Amino acid sequence: MENQKIGLIFEGDTNISPSERVRVENELRKIGKMLTFKFLKNENGWMAECNEIDGVIAGGTNTNPTDSEIKSQIRESIYAAFSVEIEETPFFSFQEFKQQETPAIA
């Protein structure tokens, strides 16, 4: 298939328990090995619609989405379709400050 991109459903997502992964993978096996999406892009943004499951749709208003953005939105639509339970984990944030120059001591 021309220009085909492949993404892993749980790629890098540590908030999904092993048992939840197995549950979703078993559901996917009933459908087939891989979900495929029809991808459309126009001046208003983009949309990806699942060929195997009606109603699984992702999209955005960015007219030039990155592969990462597309995969992330598709992943979220799959999570919603399969009611994937996401475990809450502790988080942190940080803010970068530019280091102020220290005047030289003579």
Describe the structure.
The chain has helices spanning 18-31, 67-81, and strands at 37-42, 45-50, 57-60. The chain is an alpha+beta fold and 106 residues long. It has a domain at 35-87. Strands 1-2-3 form a three-stranded antiparallel β-sheet. A hairpin with a 6-residue loop joins strand 2 (45-50) and strand 3. The longest helix has 15 residues, at 67-81. The N and C termini lie far apart (68 Å). The model has no long low-confidence stretch (mean pLDDT 86).
Distance, first to last CA: 68 Å
How many strands, what sense, and barrel or not for the largest sheet?
A: 3 strands, antiparallel
Over all CA atoms, what is the radius of gyration? Answer: 20 Å
Strand content: 15-25%
Structural class: alpha+beta
Order of secondary-structure elements: HEEEH
**Uncertain regions spanning at least 5 consecutive residues:** none
Number of helices: 2
The largest sheet has its strands arranged as: 1-2-3
Number of strands: 3
The coarse overall form would be: flat
Mean pLDDT: 86
Q: What level of helicity do the residues show? A: 25-40%
Notable traits:
106 residues, alpha+beta, three-stranded antiparallel sheet, flat
Explain the layout of strands and helices.
Elements: H1 18-31, E1 37-42, E2 45-50, E3 57-60, H2 67-81
Antiparallel strand pairs: 1-2, 2-3
Question: Can I get a quick summary?
Answer:
This protein has two helices and three strands; from the N terminus they run H-E-E-E-H. The protein is of the alpha+beta class and 106 residues long. The radius of gyration is 20 Å and the shape is flat.
